[in-house]
Fold this protein.
Amino acid sequence: MFLRSWPIIPVAATVLSASVALAQTTPANLSGTWQVSVPEFHRAPTLEIIQTGDTFTGTWRGPMGGFPVSGSIDAKNQVKFTVDFRAGVAKIPQMAKKIDATKAIGQFTGTLKGSKMEGTAAVPELEAGRTTAWSAEAVK
């Protein structure tokens, strides 16, 4: 009996290895609503994400309105996305005088850990080298 089951062991090991490899290459699913915090700017917008594969699109909603988001997540839960704030800056004359609205694209990088993301954000075209912390938690 033992000798007959011996060929199954290599097959089982191969299936297990393939399953582990697949788990390591499949990104987490970020689809849904996230409550964001950007403490430096005293903002708590929401981020609505629709994910397909390792890329996503969505909407950043805050005091200045809704702005398009596009980004990605890799198998190691590293998140990168941009928020196009240009339309919002252009709508507010006081801001438009201080900031070149054509350059108001936020770049966010971070890591997903469970139901929370955290990282740094920048608008490099406006303030090169300057970053600020951000975090987000999935809304249940």
